[in-house]
Amino acid sequence: MNMTDTVFPRRGGSCQQRGFSLVEMMISMTIGLIVIAAAGQLFMSGKRSMNLQKTQAAFQEQSSLLGTMIAGLIRQSGHIDISDGGIDRKLVFPVSAPFAAAGQVVVGVERDNDRDVLTTNGGTTQRFPDDEIVIRFEGGDDIFDCEGNTTVAGTFYAHRFKISNEQLVCIPEAGTAAIELVGTKGGLPSQRIRVLGLRVLYGIDQTGDGSVNDYNRAGSMLASDWLKVINSWLEVSVQAGDLPPKTIRLLLHYSNLN
Known about the structure:
Shape: elongated
Strand order of the largest sheet: 1-4-5-6-7
Distance between the termini: 119 Å
Structural class: alpha+beta
Number of strands: 11
Number of helices: 3
Order of helices and strands: HHHEEEEEEEEEEE
Largest sheet: 5 strands, antiparallel
């Protein structure tokens, strides 16, 4: 047997080799790109879903904080230490800016502002209430300031609540630094909790029977109405990432004013 015939087929034999044609290579590349694109979309979808869950969890936490800590702080309005029990409220709380009347422990500011609202397609601008509410109270046992510190009996406190840099903040005293309460800063806008609006309605007891006859924003309040406030409606508009804004509503009864 000829070794050459055994190992190497003669020219023209049936054993032939050929590579991929250009068309086959283009088809393979196209399929590969489709697979990569699908994997990328799946990854981005999973990442967005995870970020969305984190943002929703943060929103729930902020909502809980709004309904407990902040509501509790504002309800302290008009508190008088037990050692001052029976004293005329007008003597305990004299005229002092921004409180125009003796005995007045709640006052507000009414205004509206434009805010940027994020959407999945970019953003838009909407007008939101941008009110402020200021309260004052005397310190005492189980009475706290907006930093969570215990207050001192015989010491008087004024707290202002407002929106600043898309956060709900508390300013303990005039000229002091704001304490951030609700809302987050830093990071991607799509992962932030942003406070867009604060609307405050004041419940007025016009007849002295302990029931509300009217609800007004600050701009519609008469000077005498501030001494008749017994509760407030707070409407806080909050946006979590690029989800549609939600309004959290709180009815706060001032037990110290009844």
